[in-house]
């Protein structure tokens, strides 16, 4: 079992805060066994608490990124597309690597329209009183069933039930 240290805890928490690594990936990066990770989590409250805090930091980061992305999708945005065209000259340098010549650099801007689904999502969640995402199916009317049996006496009904005419 690896030796528990503040440095390993700091490294683990740093990985958790930065990305959505699996426990297996984290353990491999800090060079401990998964069983060691789970053992520390179960037996060392300070380790477990540090892990929870790091996960909270990552969750806050994800929420902030999601909000920024949603705003971008609602407003629409412009992005640059950069392209470089190169050509092999057929010559090689002293190390035997091909010499390439840059023929053209181009930068184009592309505008992305607002995303309708993102707009609907934002409106139905931020202003639900005015933007309800539901269907309203209403039915009105009445149904009456009339039967000839209603006009018969109890004695006549009893005869029908008993099979007598």
Give an account of the 3D structure.
The protein is an alpha+beta fold and 165 residues long. It is 49% helix and 19% strand. The chain is built from six helices and two strands, in the order H-H-H-H-E-E-H-H. It has helices at residues 6-18, 23-30, 34-43, 45-75, 116-126, 154-161; strands at 77-92, 98-112. The chain has a two-stranded antiparallel ribbon. A hairpin with a 5-residue loop joins strand 1 and strand 2. Helix 1 packs parallel to helix 4 (45-75) and helix 3 (34-43) packs across helix 4. The longest helix has 31 residues, at 45-75. The radius of gyration is 36 Å and the shape is elongated. The model has no long low-confidence stretch (mean pLDDT 89).
Percentage of β-strand residues:
15-25%
Number of strands: 2
Largest sheet: 2 strands, antiparallel
Low-confidence stretches: none
Helix and strand content put the structural class at alpha+beta
Q: Strands across the major sheet, in which order?
A: 1-2
- Please give the radius of gyration in angstroms: 36 Å
Helix segment tally: 6
Shape: elongated
Helix content: 40-55%
Write down the overall mean pLDDT.
89
Chain-wise SSE layout:
Elements: H1 6-18, H2 23-30, H3 34-43, H4 45-75, E1 77-92, E2 98-112, H5 116-126, H6 154-161
Antiparallel strand pairs: 1-2
Helix pairs in contact: 1-4, 3-4
What are the key terms here?
165 residues; alpha+beta; two-stranded antiparallel ribbon; 2 strands; 49% helix
